[in-house]
Every structure is written in C-alpha cells, then in structure tokens.
Structure prediction request, 261 residues.
Amino acid sequence: MENFTEPSDSGAVVNPQQRRKYRSPRLLQKTLITAAVVATLFVAFSPTSFSGGWREQLATMLTQEPEAVLPIGTVRPSIKIGIVAGHMGNDSGAVCANGTTEADVNLKIATIVKQKLDALGYKTDLLKEMDPRLDGYRAAVLVSIHNDSCDFVNDQATGFKVAAAMSSRDTNLANRLEACLKDRYQRETNMPLHDSVTNDMTFYHAFNEIDPGTPAGIIETGFLNLDYEILTTNTTVVATGVANGILCFINNENIEPPAAP
Prediction:
C-alpha cells in the first residue's frame, strides 16, 4: 500500500506514522499527570475526610499556600519554663550556723536545673524571688525552688515537700505537676516525702502574680539540717530530680503508683 505523507508545521513532509510516533510520548505524559491529580483528589477526599462541602474542601486544597520553609539554621520557638531561685535578690532565707544560706543553696540547685533544661532545647528563665517578670508571667510551667530550716526540729524533719498552685486556671494540670515533681524527685534522690505543706507554700505569692494559665508549683528540696549533705554536696542529684519532674510534666510522662511494701 502506498504511504501517504502530509506537511508538518514547518513545511516539511511528515509520514503519518512518524507523527503518531512523535505524539505518543506527549499523550502518555498528559495521561500520567491527569491520573496523578485524580489519585491525589481521591485520597484527599475519601469518605473519612469529609467534614464539610467537598467543593469548599477542594477549593481550599487547590488554593492553600504551602507551609513556609525556614532557612537552614533557623531556631524554632522552644517551650518556655520558669525557675524561681527562692529568696534570690530579696533575702537570705534560712541561715545555718556555718554561714550557709538557703538563698545560696536554692540558687545553686536552680542554676543546674536551668542548665539541664537549656541543654535539651528549652527556653528557661531563672527568676528572682520578687522578679518583676513574674507579673503576668506566661510559660509552659513555673517551679519555685526552696529549702527548709537549718535548725534541728526532730528526727522526722527530713525529706522534701511539694505544693501546686491552686490558683491555676486548670487545677488538673497543677495537680499533675505536683505528682510529677513528687514522683521523679523521690526516684532520683531516694528522699522521703515530708507531708507537711505550710501556708507559705500553699499561698506562695508568685502563684497569684503569674498568668493563671501557667501551671505552677513550689518544692522544698529538703531540710538544711538532716538533709544538709545531699543538698550541698550532691546538688546535681537534687537538681536532676527537679528537672526530671518538670520533664515528666512537659512530656506528659506516665507516673507509676508506688510499689506495695
């Protein structure tokens, strides 16, 4: 059979079989692109994804701007945590016979807690006792670090105390913070819980100064008499217990009930 030819757009004579040969890759490319778009729309609008009119969802998907890509090296906003070094910048707190002050011990513990949290990428504010930043302070959590008396009271005057801010907007969060601090601090230090929370802890002034949306708590990490050694020579262990309690709260970690005796 005789082969017929036809002129191309450029004026050259092209065999029809050659034209079909040239058109096939383009047709295949268009078909694949169309199939990909249809598949994408099918997945995006499967029956489980319908929460409104599909036309509105389609319009949103087609017009939505892509998520901004941050330049390499850009630091993303981190979680903010407040740590109050009890009595710092205000008074000495308890004063021991050897000259050790509660304020100094509190600051040493608070500084190590801040260093540990900063190393994990958190933005940690080290605050004074009467820090003006406490007014309306907003953070994921705030913890004030203190210690109890240097004086010998009795053989039971040992251990730590924790109280949550009941002025918090969400008391459930405040209670969880308290539970986390108790659990992780005791696990790290092996110190007993001294269940004698004072009014100075329950009605701690900062609780009513910070933003009510900031969960807060106060911990007295020990007595500067019977617990003096661990508080002053094993400060890193003490600070780790506080930091772990904060991380337990921030990361919503499990708190296992204590084992039966």
